[in-house]
Amino acid sequence: MKKLLITGASGFLGWHLCQLAKLEWEIYGTYLSHPLEIPGIKILKANLTNFQELKRIFNEVKPEAVIHTAAHSQPNFCQTNPKESHAINVIASCNIAGLCADNSIPCAFTSTDLVFDGLNAPYGETDAVCPVNLYGEQKAIAEADMLERYPMTAVCRMPLMFGTETPTAKSFIQPFIQTLQAEEELNLFIDEFRTPVSGTTAAKGLLLALEKVNGIINLGGKERISRYDFGQILVEVFQLPSTGLKSCRQQDVKMAAPRPTDVSLDSSKAFALGYHPLSVREELEMLQVLALKEYDLDKNSAHQ
To answer: Which pLDDT tens digit goes with each residue over 61-101?
Structure first.
């Protein structure tokens, strides 16, 4: 099996990617501060912002492809920690592109829909970037610099992602579910639109892009949806109490990082290549089936 290096294996997307990719690749996954074990995967502790350390990993692992998911991806964190987030989001990303170029190996990079200002959605791959916060700005710089350093890079613009909790990461739906189950108030935006996909679907898209794409590709879902409408579907599928679900607007919530209103992605280019996200409802129904299976397994093992 060929060797695939996945940075950020302890992150939400990195973990889902490891699960899927290990069927076809020998996986080496990196983490920085959240140690984890994934059966069948070699996990390496690595500070990717240290170029010598990064080079050493390339020399030791000798990967035949790289998917770079490691990042500081919380916009509010990036806004208040510009230097620390720039080191991983921009500098490390460019260094990875450079090392992939030196070794002439495929490289996929996870960018974001937040490279746009939200005023002209849906966004295609050729639309000009115009981020409104520092996270989006860092990703936009990384996109351009990586492609300049290594034009063969697959720059994958990722949408909002959700899915099963991993050993070291949650997605945004876990706190939503907890809040609603406790019948506490959950305020969700009616004026922020995205094209979400599950972590598993996103991972499939990344593996497809690694194989088939040079340049920029959008990996959004098939529907444009507000956070509030997403919450309503979540309530129905997971049969949660809906009393706490309330609508609000972006201006009602104070946040360190400004947020664009509509960064829906037009991902028809990826769909034509064989990327097939399900609807939000279908994705959530599959997660619900998984959750019930795990619940039954836990119950059975408790009785043994």
So the answer is: 999 999 999 999 999 999 999 999 999 999 999 999 999 99
Sign of CA dihedral 219, 224, 226, 229: negative
Helices marked H in 171-213: 173-181, 199-212
| pLDDT one-digit tens code per residue, 3-40 | 999 999 999 999 999 999 999 999 999 999 999 999 99
Selection from 198, 203, 223 nearest residue 283 by Cα: 198
Record the pTM.
0.95
Classify 269 as helix, strand or coil. helix
- Whole-angstrom CA distances from 7 to 72, 133, 279 are 12, 24, 28
Partners of residue 43 on adjacent β-strands: 29
User: What is the distance between the terminal CA atoms of the chain, rounded to a whole angstrom?
Assistant: 38
Q: What share of the chain is helix, strand, coil (3-state, %, to 5)?
A: 45, 15, 40
Q: Record the tokens describing residue 202, joined without a space.
A: 């996103």
Is residue 182 within 8 A of residue 218, CB to CB? The reply is: no
Vertex 162: Cα angle to 33 and 284 (nearest 5): 145
Task: For residue 143, count other CB atoms closer than 10 A to its CB.
Answer: 23
Token readout for 50 is 């240290």
Note whether 94 and 142 are within 8 A (CB).
yes
Interstrand relation of 225-226 and 193-194 (parallel, antiparallel or unpaired): antiparallel
